[in-house]
Amino acid sequence: MNNKIVVKVYPDKEQAAKEIAAEIAALIRARAAEGREAVLGLATGSTPIVLYKELIRLHKEEGLSFKNVTSFNLDEYYGLPGTHDQSYRYFMNTELFDHVDIDKAKTHVPDGTVPADKVGEMCAKYDADIKAAGGIDIQILGIGRTGHIGFNEPPCAADTRTHQVKLNELTIKDNARLFFHDKIDEVPTSAVTMGVGTILESRKIILLAWGDGKADIVRKSLMDAPSEMCPASWLQKHSDCVFAIDAAAAARL
Question: pTM value?
Answer without folding.
Answer: 0.95
